[in-house]
Amino acid sequence: MEKLRELKLPDGNTVTFSCPVEATLWVVAGKWKLVILWYLRDRGIMRFSELRRAMPEITQQMLTAQLRELEADGIISRTVHPQVPPKVEYAMTPFGRTLDPLIDEMFRWGKVYIARVRAMNARSK
Fold first, then answer.
1. Which keywords annotate this record (predicted)?
2. Global confidence as pTM
C-alpha cells in the first residue's frame, strides 16, 4: 500500500490520499457524478436541460455543482456557443473516457444487485 501522499489539485487546494482508490473516489464520488457520466458516455454531447430531463430527481443547483466539479477535474468539457439564448454543451473528455471500464463494471454490478434484491423480495412474500 502506498504511503500518504499530498496532491495539489488544479483548483489550488491540497488533499492527502492514502491510496489510489481514495483519489478515484475524490473525483467520482457523489450521488450524481457517475450517473451524469453514464448519460454523457451513452449519449455523447448533452445540454444542461437534457441532463436535467434524464435525471428528474436532481436539483438544478446540484447538477450545476456536480458538472462544475467534473469539469474542474478534467473529466468533462463544457462548451458555450455564443448565441441567444446561450447554448451550453457537456461531453466527456478523452481523460474522462478512461473511466469507461469503471462505469461499465458499476453498471454490471448494479444489475446483479437489483436482481439479487428482487429475488430476495420475491422469496419473502
1. DNA-binding, Transcription, Transcription regulation
2. 0.86
